[in-house]
Amino acid sequence: xxxxxxxxxxxxxxxxxxxxxxxxxxxxxxxxxxxxxxxxxxxxxxxxxxxxxxxxxxxxxxxxxxxxxxxxxxxxxxxxxxxxxxxxxxxxxxxxxxxxxxxxxxxxxxxxxxxxxxxxxxxxxxxxxxxxxxxxxxxxxxxxxxxxxxxxxxxxxxxxxxxxxxxxxxxxxxxxxxxxxxxxxxxxxxxxxxxxxxxxxxxxxxxxxxxxxxxxxxxxxxxxxxxxxxxxxxxxxxxxxxxxxxxxxxxxxxxxxxxxxxxxxxxxxxxxxxxxxxxxxxxxxxxxxxxxxxxxxxxxxxxxxxxxxxxxxxxxxxxxxxxxxxxxxxxxxxxxxxxxxxxxxxxxxxxxxxxxxxxxxxxxxxxxxxxxxxxxxxxxxxxxxxxxxxxxxxxxxxxxxxxxxxxxxxxxxxxx
Length: 416
Known about the structure:
About 45% of the residues lie in helices and about 15% in strands. By secondary structure, the chain is α+β, with helices and mostly antiparallel strands. The relative contact order is 0.12. The chain has helices spanning about 20-25, 45-50, 65-85, 90-130, 130-145, 160-200, 200-225, 235-245, 250-255, 375-385; strands spanning about 35, 40, 230-235, 260-265, 285, 300-305, 310-315, 320-325, 330-340, 340-350, 360, 365-370, 390-400, 405. Helix 4 runs antiparallel to helix 6 and helix 4 (about 90-130) packs parallel to helix 10. It has two domains: about 20-220, no CATH class; about 230-410, Glucose Permease (Domain IIA), CATH 2.70.70. It is elongated. The strands form three sheets. Strands 5, 6, 7, 8, 9, 10, 11, 12, 13 and 14 form a ten-stranded antiparallel sheet that branches. A two-stranded antiparallel ribbon has the order 1-2. It has a two-stranded antiparallel ribbon with strand order 3-4.
């Protein structure tokens, strides 16, 4: 009778082991053993099994690891886009797309790393919980590895016992092989996730620096822009007097007509209220129309939580009616997408453009404040399973005539 096949435990060329269970690896380590043919053969130890961790299975290339890798590729594409934007005929549009590409890539990479950290923790907890079963499996493989092949066929009760034992071993061997393969797959995935997170620091750092450079370039390009049409020329003295004489947003909005020095013949944009406009910034709605704030005050607008330095854009073609600091709202941009309708965007760190300009949909109107976290801080957060932080807030109010209305009539807010 031919000896039953043993589980395939061959070491992959160039593979290195990572000791997850030091006590087990020391228990099953030792010198080389002689096989039945007299040759030298190393023992089947935990270190030999763990050396297979670098044999990445298909599963390690999918799901969390693939998502984070795709995000890293998106950041590299954004870097190339930034270089190309310098020679673009429309630098503002090119740089706007580049900033948005960096923001999306950094957000996706952070989420991918967070998922990878959670998956790694789950796998390691699973391996720790199965340490007893793994110990038994390795002990069995160790004993099988020590015995020369002919001895596996001998049985004290004679030929019949030998035949029965051979049949049992032949049935047991595939089951052992399946357990070994499952262990290899889990260890390989853990190793893949560790390597992914270890290599992410450099990619994150480059992405953060690229996003900062793209924002700086965009700000400079907008400040030099002279090709936008204008509806009116602002009277800066009248604007300053209006700001000084009003103490509410209602009063300021009602007096905006006083700051126009001269009307121009350029037609005003006209945007219909369809409830489908994109929000001006990527973020999460934390308060809706009429919801009371922490002080119990109900505000007639929505509040979006955003990432630091997030780009704020015009939801539709509009006239810039005001931009600058206002009351206790911080930096404010007021857009007029249609005659008699105002979009109030308050809480920005920087504001772009000039009052009277007509800007197209998607035109940058400002950048949120705050300081983006460093790469080390991001990696620390994702290692703890934390998602993206959104410490900045943008207040969005829609006014028709002199009355605030629910922004959901204009913007696609989603369920809430």
